[in-house]
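Sample intake sheet
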Amino acid sequence: MKYSTWLKWIWVKFILVSAAGVILLFDTAAVQSQITVFLGKLDSMLSLEKDAAVDHLRIWKNKDYAAINQRIEALETDFPKDLIKAIAWCESEWNHIDTDGHLFVTVNRKKSGSEIRHHQISLDYGIMQINERMESLSRKAWDWERIKNDPEYNLRAGVAVLKSKIAYIHRLKRQSNWRQLESRYCLQGHDELDLMLKAYNGFQPSWNYPKRIKSVMQEKPWEKAVLRQLFFEANWPDTIFVKINPARETIIPRVTSANLAPEISFYTLEIAQAGQP
């Protein structure tokens, strides 16, 4: 149980005990009636708050891809939304919690020496798989309990990490030894998006992660997931069906310091209900 919830219930119990004491001291119908009304309102407020928390997580438990897609679209960020969607898909396939409410966690093991006992273990949390050792997220500025328990907060944390990584790449490029670093780590021929994604993935030796993200941005597997969801939710044999309008081509310009999108041509499916323009 969270600390805030525990504290809340301590206050509720205190109020209940106090109310019982008042009833014993002032055993009048008027006092009992006022206390009953007050406790009823208190119980109603707590129930509404509990229902709101459940509703907030329901789309994540039920894997409501259409609703999750809307949440990501609503993020305030200068990064392309398809980039955020692709990273979240590659990291967790948009999983934050399962149907039982268990947090999606990945265990990382890194060998720091030649012997097996020298393993470093860290955990990645939620939809954006935020690592608990992430230096980009200040412990003072970011609430790690919310990173674990709030999917949308986890998404915002992931965006913050991306911003910190692109800033880190810019700092590296301004250093006098950048050419030596570029040659030593074989960074030639890779744009800032590649470097940012490589940094997000912990600077793994291979370039598979940036390649995978760009591939997923083109394939858009979340659109297929939304289509499957809408298909199964359709009320057969009613007239509400899914139709796909002609795809439109989107051309994203080359990465610059002001524009972090990759130079990729891809297509977007226009999803609508039958009868809509």
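Comment: Residues 45-53, 239-259, 261-277 have pLDDT under 50 and may be disordered. The longest helix spans residues 29-61.
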